[in-house]
Write a structure and sequence with these properties.
One of its GO terms (biological process) is regulation of translational initiation. With 419 residues, the protein is mainly α. Helix content is 64%, strand content 0%.
Length: 419
């Protein structure tokens, strides 16, 4: 037996040096910050010179790595600590957004600086959006003047499509909302946005990111009403925004009502109950009968699976609508409501190709059920119809309209004979 300790094998050979590019570079923004601050101090208030300096520096400095530092300096003059205060141990510049003049013209010039920078270095786009989201969360750490400048700049950038409206999510932060910071900031932001473009630009951008129905969230829950929103923004000179929000809330209420009606019909609830519920909701939401009949028509036509065959769908539609004639009749007590319903039917038959040939039969059914009057049908035929599918539908209705006119003439002559 060998008592000697067995020697462990050892590896020998050349030791490879780690390549410089494989070493993880330490995150140290100090030198980057000093370079940016120095350049801004040399450019001063000349924003053309600032834009040129930033354009040229992108080739030498690591914008991709230090994007947050870059935007912090351009906005606040130095790196921001959590909460929005400037870091004490860092170099700062007095030439930044927060120290600029508080007027729209200066903010437009600053917007151009950011626009040029991001167009030149496309990879900064995402970092810039993240920066704005962060700055909005830091609003309480800024002075009122700094908030105003940031709001104006953000409004201009949103109007020109340099930012997505999704950044406004930060304004729904509970603490900002509770202290009224969000609403005050929104006033300045939307004013500069509308000044730069118009309310349609606001509407399109908000809809794109699903925020068109969320503006009420700028206020605490106990003040989240259409009345409060309307008064606040109208008093601030933003009546267009108040009207937009009111309209959006009305659209939201209509969609909810339509869905509820659809559900009631699918459950097979009695028409009397549906009528009572609809009248109550119509009163609550302040909806006109013309608007209501449109909602009812859509609900009635959406609560059934339609046959794909043209020859069978007409029969199915007649049977289905006969079932709901009482409901339709309850909300066509005015001539304008009848016309609204006729236009909805025309629109529906045009949009759903299988219903193109069903139009006349639907109108005749509703005439017989006392939902539509001959006056409304004649008015629609002569000059109140839509242009969509006009020739097809007028041709379909020609014989019935002639019959109505003849019946009307006979009725008039009978009256004259009686006299």
């Amino acid at each position: 037996m060998n008592n000697q300790k067995q020697q462990k094998p050892t590896l020998t050979g050349q030791r490879f040096k780690t390549r410089k590019r494989d070493e993880k570079e330490r995150f140290d923004p100090t030198q980057f910050q000093e370079s940016i601050v120095q350049g801004l101090n040399q450019s001063g208030t000349d924003l053309e010179a600032v834009a040129k300096f930033l354009d040229a520096s992108g080739g030498k400095l690591d914008y991709r790595r230090y994007a947050e530092t870059l935007f912090d300096i351009l906005v606040a003059g130095g790196m921001l600590a959590p909460g929005g205060t400037l870091s004490d141990d860092m170099t700062r510049t007095e030439f930044c957004l927060f120290t600029a003049q508080e007027d729209l013209e200066t903010m437009q010039a600053y917007a151009q600086v950011f626009n040029k920078l991001i167009r030149r270095y496309k990879y900064l786009e995402k970092g810039f959006e993240e920066e704005i989201k962060k700055l909005l969360l830091f609003l309480k750490g800024f002075t009122e003047s700094e908030r105003n400048k940031l709001a104006m700049l953000t409004g201009i950038l949103l109007a020109n499509g340099n930012l997505s409206a999704s950044i406004l999510n930060s304004l729904f932060n509970e603490n900002l909302v509770k202290e009224g910071v969000s609403a005050a900031f929104a006033v300045k932001l939307f004013k500069s946005w509308i000044n730069e473009k118009d309310i349609n630009s606001v509407a399109v951008s908000l809809r794109k990111v699903g925020m068109d129905n969320r503006l009420m969230e700028l206020f605490p829950a106990n003040k989240r009403s259409c009345e409060h929103f309307s008064k606040y923004f109208t008093d601030a000179g933003l009546k267009e925004l108040s009207d937009f929000a009111r309209n959006q809330q009305s659209i939201g209420a209509r969609k909810e009502l339509q869905k509820e009606l659809q559900d009631m019909m699918s459950r097979g609830e009695p028409q009397k109950e549906i009528i009572a519920f609809t009248k109550e909701e119509m009163k609550k939401a302040g909806l006109s009968e013309q608007t209501m009949i449109g909602i009812i028509w859509t609900s009635v036509m959406s609560c059934v699976e339609w046959n794909k065959k043209e020859e069978l769908v007409t029969e199915q539609a007649i049977k289905h609508l006969k079932q709901y004639s009482l409901l339709l009749k309850a909300f066509t007590s005015q001539g304008l409501s009848e016309l609204s319903l006729l236009l909805k039917i025309q629109e529906y038959c045009y949009d759903n190709i299988h219903f193109m040939k069903a139009f006349q039969k639907i109108v005749v059914l509703l005439y017989k059920a006392d939902v539509l009057s001959e006056e409304a049908i004649l008015k629609w035929y002569s000059d109140a119809h839509l242009s969509r599918g006009k020739s097809v539908f007028l041709e379909q209705m020609k014989k019935f309209v002639e019959w109505l006119k003849n019946a009307e003439e006979e009725s008039e002559s009978d009256e004259e004979e009686t006299d």
